[in-house]
Amino acid sequence: SRNITQLKCLGGVFKNIGEVFSEISCHEFKSSGHKSYGLVAESHRFFGLSTEKLISEIIIIIDKIDTFIKTVIPDTKATLKKYLNDKFEYLSFCLKVLILNLDIIG
Fold first, then answer.
1. 55-96, pLDDT tens digit by residue?
2. Rounded Cα gap, residues 31 and 68, in angstroms
3. Which distant-in-sequence residues (6+ apart) come within 8 Å of 76 by Cβ?
4. How many Å apart are CA 14 and CA 44, to the nearest integer?
5. What range(s) does the AH domain occupy (predicted)?
6. Quick one: which of 60, 67, 51, 62 has its CA closest to 5?
7. Which of 71, 95, 74 is nearest to 82 (CA)?
8. Where do the DSSP E strands lie in the chain?
9. ∠104-105-106 over CA atoms, to 5°?
10. In which element (H, E) is residue 46 found?
11. Residue extents of the structural domains in the chain
């Protein structure tokens, strides 16, 4: 949560830097300077947008991991426990049948 907030702030910083360079680009008289500042502005705006997309993807991943931890793992543990209990009962039954067969034969 704290890291997401920091990432959002970083995205805002990129956008703000992009706006500043865009403003500088508008006031630059030389064509090369205008293009250079414009490119830097565009890059920083892109970084800001990319950060927003990254945050949304991170939130989706965190939600999926949370679901996995809270539901899938406990369900798997419960299923495994039931399986092991049933297997123990089955093997106990097989052992009883074997003992009965040995008593009948012997």
1. 999 999 999 999 999 999 999 999 999 999 999 999 999 999
2. 55
3. none
4. 5
5. 15-106
6. 51
7. 74
8. none
9. 95
10. helix 31-67
11. 2-105
Asked whether the predicted pLDDT for residue 105 surpasses 90, the reply is no
Provide the 3-class DSSP secondary structure of residue 28.
coil
Q: Dmax of the chain from CA atoms?
A: 109
Contact 18, 44 (CB under 8 A): yes
In the block, residue with structure tokens 């250079």: 36
User: Which pTM value belongs to this model?
Assistant: 0.60
The structure tokens listed for 20 are 């500043």
Q: Residue 48's closest CA among 20, 21, 8?
A: 8
CA 106/CA 102 separation, integer angstroms: 6
